[in-house]
Amino acid sequence: MATDLDGTLLTSTGTITPRTTNALRRAREAGAEIVFVTARPPRTARTIAGLAGVTGTVICSNGAIVYDLATDEIIRSLPLEPAAARKVATLLAAALPGIGLAAETGRNVLTEPAYTRRVTHDLAYHREVSSVFEAGEPIVKLLVLSKTHTADEMYTAAVAAIEGQAEVTHSGVTGVLEISAPGVTKAGALDWLCQERGIAPEEVVAFGDMPNDVAVLAFAGRGYAMANAHHLVLAATEHRTLSNDEDGVAAVLERLYG
């Protein structure tokens, strides 16, 4: 079973309910492997896994990282090449004037002065730099902030500007775009993990709510869009469940596992 976190497994307040925790436990006891497939970095995905009682492997940073919870190790990392990251940033600055940049490294976040967004529970891992490209750390995900555009508007402009030189998506955060290396997606990482496990796509049940989840839901034998999902997700996905605030993931797991 593969599930996104924010807007999917977690409520709108960022918590996991007892009902969902119990449904995950039943699924594990029935033999299901539960894999978080998230835009979050390992450090915050690990916290949620502890609350949910989930062990094993997590797909993080939109597929750029595969992380082992037991060993606290990144077992697969697909960062942006430095030259490619610089080129993409130049193209984005021309298409979306006034943007700010940050970079997720897998262990922390590098933030340039113009990137003013901060996540309260992750403040200890933010490090201010003059340039994310001169810090000498890998960029597993380039974060782009605009104070004047929505994420959907940014996505349209970025796709046209980048022309396939990087993977562009967003996870619903206002004014924030997420850039990965070409071909790096949540679905690609899940496919890799399934091949490692000898699991066929049709055996996978998946849940998601944002554009970065569309390919995951298409890959899975049964992919469920949350009732609160982005309109692109709803348009692309046949199966539905209740919203994240109505324990939509748990509702499906209870039908599958009792």
From TrEMBL:
A Pfam family per the record: Hydrolase_3
MF terms in GO: magnesium ion binding; phosphatase activity
Cellular compartments per GO CC: cytosol
Domain of life of the source: Bacteria
Cross-referenced SUPFAM superfamilies: HAD-like (SSF56784)
Matching NCBIfam families: Cof-subfamily, HAD-SF-IIB
Full protein name: Cof subfamily of IIB subfamily of haloacid dehalogenase superfamily/HAD-superfamily hydrolase, subfamily IIB
